[in-house]
Amino acid sequence: MIDRRLFFNVDWVLVATTLVLAVIGVAMIFSATHSGRHADLYMKQLYVVGVGVLAMFLCLLVDYRRLADRAFLLYLLAVGVLVYLLFFGPRIAGTRRWMSLLGFQVQPSEFVKLVAALFVAKILADSRQETLGLRDIAGPGVAVGLLALLIAAAPDLGTAFCLIPLFLSVAFLAGLRMKAVAWLAVVLLVVGGIGWQYALKDYQKSRIYTFLDPSLDPKGAGYQKIQSQIAVGSGGLLGKGWTQGSQAQLGYLPARHTDFIFSVLAEETGFVGVSVVLGLYLLLLWRMLDTAQLARDRVGAFLAAAITATFAFQVVYNVAMVAGLVPVKGLPLPLLSYGRSSLLSSFLAVGLILNVRMRRFAN
Amino acid sequence: MRIYEDLRVVQGRLSVLQSMVVGLVALVLIHFWNLQVVRGRYFRTLAENNRTRAVPLAAPRGALLDRHGRVLVLNRPSFNVVLTPEHSEDLDAAIARLSRALGLGEATVRERLARRGAPFHPVVVKTDASLEDVAALEARRLELPEVAVDVVPLRSYPLASAAAHALGRVGEITERQIESREFEGLEAGALVGQAGLESQYNRSLMGRDGFRRVVVNSRGVEVGEAERQPPLDGPSLTLTLDSALQTAAEQAFAGRAGSAVALEPETGEILAMTSVPAYDPNTFTTGVDAALWGKLSTDSATPLMDRVIQGQYAPGSVFKIVMATAGLEEGVISPSTTFYCPGHLSVYNTVFRCNRAAGHGLVNAQQALALSCNVFFYQLGIRLEISRIAAWAKKMGLGAPTGVDLPHELGGLVPSPEWKQRTQRVQWYGGETVSVAIGQGQVSVTPLQLARLAALIANGGRLVRPHLVRSVGGVPIPIEPAPDLALKPATLAVVRAGMKGVVAEGTGGRARLEGVSVSGKTGSAQVVAKARLEKNPSLTAIVPHGWFVAFAPSEAPRIALAVLVEHGGSGGEAAALAREILAHFFGLDRAPAVVPSGRTADIEAATP
């Protein structure tokens, strides 16, 4: 039974921020889809918000340390699911990202991020060394790399990339020597280069090429970037008004209710809306990292940091992508984008953070 | 008491991560400021262009009506089959289905699609489609969502080839026209006037196209209308032509080549103008067929040339009107001055012949005109000299375009020593003056100039500007006052009497009408120049062009005209043709033909 005193230590600011962002998400999804064939998507998202809140609080019942103790088991389960998906998963839109669970379409990679966070936090917290060298993090690095590879093979490059900041931030907190940090940067560059040569599919390469020069293919891969930039820019200071964005409403924006939901927000609510939402995200991330500061042990701090790093990476990358700063990748904006797995995973992530924070005084 | 872990290193490094997050979010926010606030206006324009698309609404061209309001040119609704490739999911299948439905070759459809303009603009696959085509497409509507049938106004010329040159034709705007200032604002595919009045009054006739600004989605499919500016129909033009007289003139030619133009002498209003052979402007309205164009433009009978304003011929004896006027006005001769005609004149080491080998004896100006005596005018020419002849020819409207409201009018030529020196670097020689005196040699005129010359004698010496348009959209075009040459009454009296004599007892007898007195002058234009004749004697077989200019009734003229029959020999045939036009004008169509008596025609020879 949960200690009633713990309830008072729940970070209500974080809960409130999360809920406000999720509701803004629902409103933007309504705006993006209300005139189309799937006008009811916002309702679906709303249900998931309810389920998510429930899951977030359920997640509080179990001590994060008990979860971390089972991290290795969860890791094996994750590998198993990803391998199964790769070989037997249904092909949807050319990828094998989804599987059917209890009649719902589930994207396991969204939850694998949480497993990875628990796993990395647990392993590195247990290392108990003052400083770490490259050799010390090689083992966990390979383990996380395997997850990333399996996700990338789906293919789901965006989610796979999320594991990199996750792992690096925890390694950094765990005392990775600065020399090792520098080495890691070099290794990443080399791997990146090789990956470019051999691992990227043609459509991924062309996305990057057209990112560098969108006019190469204005109706093709460069189209998304151009149209999203037009949507964002034309929003101006105050925006065109909710449900009044021409780019969003007339279908110029690709994936406007999922990966490009922030583009709809920027067009319809302008720079003011962008500032408010980015402010909310900053508050969210700040509270999350605060939790890491306040955590009573390394596992808690590392877990909070790992989750925050993933979250921060997704938010910054997605928003930068919408603004045309980075190449287009299939990466949802946490809490705002339409997507049941992504939303549920975000709520669970917040739940884990709350879990760490409320048990900061407990034995 | 629990012993807490030492988390100081962790907490220190967390601060680094914290500031990194703040820094990244701040950077992103600055970028959004730049996009949305600094460059907001630029992106708003882009979004607006994305969102809306202007669809032109073609304004129907104004109709052309004759002076009594009868329709000469109008628009009829026609069907264009258009295809928008962007709306197609499987273009190849659509092309196959469409070509089957229309009975067109797939290659034809593809060729048309290859010529397309901007994206999302429909491409015309077939113009002026038949009702069967439209029905076939309606039946396949669901299979061919990318195909539409547009109703567009098409130019129609009910008179077919009658007055074809005056009315003109329309055609697709050419590349060069698009670049010219005259056609500013027009796009490829626009129909513009390409000849005649259609070209001259193109801007006015076109009206102003309207447009619909439609809201489209990212697939270019229309989802709403943002703005509509209705087209402003082109105003109709009321012409000076009389379609019945025009038809009479066309019929009078009966297969012969030539031209006829009739004016109202007081105003210069053109009552009829015909140039044959002609073409049917209806064949151009849906775009020029290359084969047909090639045939028309290389035809040696030059059906595309408007002979009334572009045919330049020697005026022949018609020029004697100018000579007599000049002589009397300059005081070189008086009405009673006579010259003796022995049938020829030997001067400048050349023998210049008269049209009557036996000679006319003693003749005055009036008689010389009526009988078309060459010797009288040789003598007069020698006395006037070329400079005064040229000056009077120009005063009377020769050697320069008349200013008719038609494009590409030519001016003919009035030769002078200066002109010869300038163009040929050769001195004028006296014998040439003798040739010019009877309208041969280098003089050339258009039929319209000679019709105006007839009008000038008829109206008492005023040089009217011939014109075809009375009013634009009901607003009359003011007639500018015609310059008055202030001819002496005696001059006019002599010339008029001479011209009356031409029809009553002279060379133009075939133009005689019962009940209406006609004044006229015959002439024949040599086709082959003297120099070419000497090299190739067989060319003498070529019959000269026949002229007849006239006005009627002689006492109070209501019509002046010029008729040219190519290779019509002397002016007799032209006079007969003019008679038919005049008969119609005076409502004497069914009256029995007057059998011409006495002389038939003048046969001139400027060559020794």
Fold and architecture overview:
The complex is a heterodimer of chains A (363) and B (608). Chain A has 363 residues and is mainly α. Chain A has 15 helices and two strands. The mean pLDDT of chain A is 87. The radius of gyration of chain B is 35 Å and the shape is elongated. In chain B, strands 2, 3, 4, 5, 10, 17 and 18 form a seven-stranded mixed beta sheet that branches. A five-stranded antiparallel beta sheet of chain B has the order 12-11-21-20-19, sandwiched between helices. A three-stranded antiparallel beta sheet of chain B has the order 1-8-9. The model of chain B is unreliable at 595-608 (pLDDT under 50). With 608 residues, chain B is α+β, with helices and mostly antiparallel strands. In chain B, helix 13 (320-330) packs antiparallel against helix 19 and helix 15 crosses helix 17 (430-437). At the A-B interface, helix 8, helix 11, helix 13 and helix 14 of A face helix 1 and helix 2 of B.
The residue fraction in helices of chain A comes out at over 70%
Q: Gyration radius of chain A, to the nearest Å?
A: 20 Å
Mean pLDDT of chain A comes to 87
The oligomeric status of these chains comes to heterodimer
Q: Estimate the strand proportion of chain B.
A: 15-25%
Helix content of chain B: 25-40%
Strand order of the largest sheet of chain A: 1-2
Strand-pairing-aware structural class of chain B: alpha+beta
Structural class of chain A, by secondary structure, is: mainly alpha
**What does the main sheet of chain A amount to?**
2 strands, antiparallel
Per the principal axes of the C-alpha atoms, what is the gross shape of chain A? globular
Order of helices and strands of chain A: HHHHHEEHHHHHHHHHH
Number of helices of chain A: 15
CATH class division of the largest domain in chain B: Alpha Beta
